[in-house]
Amino acid sequence: MSDALTSRAAHEYRNERDRQERTKAGSRLAVLHSAPSPACEEDYDGAQAPPAPIDDAGPRHKGNGADGPQRDYVPPGSPGAALFKFERWGEIAFNVDEEYLIDGILPKQGVGLLYGASQTFKSFIATHMGLHVARAQPWAGRQTEGAPVVYLAAEGAPGLRKRKAGYVNTGRVPADGVDFALVSAAPNLGTADGDFDRLVATIKSAAIKPGLIIVDTIAKVIGGADENGAGMAQFLLNVQALAQIFDCFVLAIHHTGWNEDAKDRPRGWSGLPAALDVMILSERKPGDMHATATIQKSKDELSGFRLTAHLERIVLGISRTGREVSTLIVEVVETEAPAVSNPTKSIPRSRRLIMDMVLAAIEEAGEDIRPFANGPIIRAVSDETVRRRYYARIAEQAAPDEDVRKMAERQRKGFNRAISDVLNAKDLMAQERDGRGSYGCHARDIFRILDQAISVGPTGTTGTCL
Description:
This protein is of the alpha/beta class. It has eleven helices and 15 strands. 33% of the residues lie in helices and 19% in strands. The chain folds into two domains: 100-335, P-loop containing nucleotide triphosphate hydrolases (Rossmann fold, 3-Layer(aba) Sandwich); 349-455, Arc Repressor Mutant, subunit A. It has a nine-stranded mixed sheet. The chain has a four-stranded antiparallel sheet with strand order 12-13-15-14. A two-stranded antiparallel sheet has the order 1-2.
């Protein structure tokens, strides 16, 4: 995505959010001098009004739940009632047992993304996860907080029906009595005048207070809106509002980008990852009956660990045409053991010393250079400056019977050996320039910046390494 497109999407997102806040503030002022209607109190049941999309040009909702929740809600006790809960320092508390829906993976409230390329078992993993939450059973070896689950199958509802048959036929899940509900529809959550109100009303009318809402998939519920900008921003506003209204976690299923270099990030608006509490990448090699789920982001927790979901094929029966009908279900999800890394070798004192000298010299007399024709600009310093600092740090004095010239030669050789060691270890790079040597960035950092310049920014992207 270009920088211009990213900037435009972020600008549209901020404008839409600010417009909604202004509209809500105005509507609240209009009702401060009148008590809320009984129908309004019943609709929200004391919950905070959601920051849902509002169409300035259209009529405002005043319904009693049949046509959506009222947006002009002021909590009981108005006029003059506080619109937000106020907690003093002594009242702020945290319970370690009330943080997660799935321990260490899904928090009880927030928005997350399970994404991957086509046929990487995303929906299978999400269904398996939802069934374990609905039945308060451990998932991937981690405790779950049992809660009702709503699965919004905007695509693939028939597939979920088959998966249920697979779980039931194998005796893994009972045919009834599981707090797992299916909504086989594609509500529009990508535009301000979409179906957010109707979706909330549908869930409330079923007398369900979900702990987990699964949206499968984003592409099917943004109503044809632009997933590279305003459509995705509006979707985020809506699912964040769902999480607040029901005090739950919303897990959306999405796809990776189309390009080969976008296989490990979500498709669409670049601001999406920053708005998420959890981001999980599902990957699978063709023909494999397992997929790897990498926790790329987990707010307030370590990320980067992997889970492996193993699937099995279940034959459901023979159709009247003689065709074998089957489905896949997740058999088990395991946490991969972390790779054992080699012990880090200690860096010799002489190398640490010369690196300290280079750092100090760059800070004192560094200058910008471009070591490669189309590479980035980096900070570097001449070898004379480094040598001068090195000699001052050593502060070696000649012995009474030693020739001063021999001492100087010994210092010169010591400096050259130290520089050769760090260059051979690729801790530094050196380049002849205008007849003199200069020392700059760690080589590995230079190449990292070059990669960024090629994949993200224009040629000549600058960076300082040391």
